[in-house]
Automatic annotation (TrEMBL):
SUPFAM superfamilies: GST C-terminal domain-like (SSF47616), Thioredoxin-like (SSF52833). Coiled coil: none annotated. Belongs to the GST superfamily. InterPro entries: Glutathione-S-Trfase_C-like (IPR010987), Glutathione-S-Trfase_C_sf (IPR036282), Glutathione_S-Trfase (IPR040079), Glutathione_S-Trfase_N (IPR004045), GST_C (IPR004046), GST_C_Tau (IPR045074), Omega/Tau-like (IPR045073), Thioredoxin-like_sf (IPR036249). Gene3D superfamilies: 1.20.1050.10, Glutaredoxin. It comes from Selaginella moellendorffii (Spikemoss). The keyword Coiled coil does not apply. Residues 90-217 form the GST C-terminal domain. This is glutathione transferase.
């Protein structure tokens, strides 16, 4: 096995964030994809992550690191001297970067596509409010443009960047319309920069493939063949 190996799922936004971090740091890595259609977790995944049995898992010299937020910080700390610095040099901005990466990952809107009826509408409204909040906060002087802290990606950007892959799926399956530049100009600027960033483009699952993948997963969930 390679010195650095990432256990992933093709459409996992959390794994996409980790891939971006590794690419930005210039770390060579291999990827092992889980098969969501399989009847259970792979033997390798259960072995290296017996606690949650979830991806992503980063194997560095055969030692497993779990949970995307932990992995992102590990990547930055381990390869701090190379590539993009994913945490700002200023202490206050570092705290903000950690806050927003945690906020995005723990309050993600990915459940929208799995909900129905009033529950879906409630989740959609919560995500819209979260986007408006980020638009307001990221417009303040302590932040930068076009990314959260300027012209370089940070942990905060990486946490939310998989939206470039999931946006079409949200809009199609979740009946979710993202605010435009008139209502959320700061977020519109950020999203345009993210969608056109080469690291993001190389790390995400193409939006049309993500939608196809999500349709398959929804059917499997409906048929009780897999559970989330």
């Amino acid at each position: 096995m390679a010195e650095v190996t990432l256990l992933s799922l093709p459409a996992s936004p959390f794994a996409m964030s980790v891939k971006m971090a590794l690419i930005e740091k210039g770390v060579e890595f291999a990827t092992v994809e889980e098969n969501y259609r399989a009847s259970g977790k792979s033997e390798l995944l259960v072995k290296v992550n017996p606690v949650t049995k979830q991806v992503p898992v980063l194997l560095h010299r055969a030692k497993p690191i779990w949970e995307s937020l932990v992995i992102l910080e590990y990547v930055e700390e381990t390869w701090k001297a190379q590539g993009t610095q994913l945490l700002p040099g200023d202490g206050y901005q570092r705290a903000l970067a950690r806050f927003w990466s945690n906020f995005v990952i723990t309050k993600t809107g990915l459940l929208i596509m799995k909900r129905v009826g009033d529950e879906q509408l409630k989740a959609r409204d919560q995500v819209l409010e979260m986007i408006r909040l980020m638009d307001s906060e990221w417009s303040k002087p302590e932040y930068g443009k076009p990314f959260v802290f300027g012209d370089k990606l940070s942990l905060a950007d990486l946490a939310l960047a998989p939206i470039a892959s999931w946006k079409v799926t949200f809009e199609t399956l979740g009946k979710f319309e993202f605010p435009d530049a008139r209502t959320c100009p700061r977020m519109a600027l950020w999203l345009d920069a993210i969608e056109n960033h080469p690291t993001v483009q190389s790390a995400i699952l193409a939006p049309d493939l993500n939608l196809e993948n999500a349709n398959i997963i929804q059917k499997l969930i409906k048929d009780n063949k897999i559970k989330f």
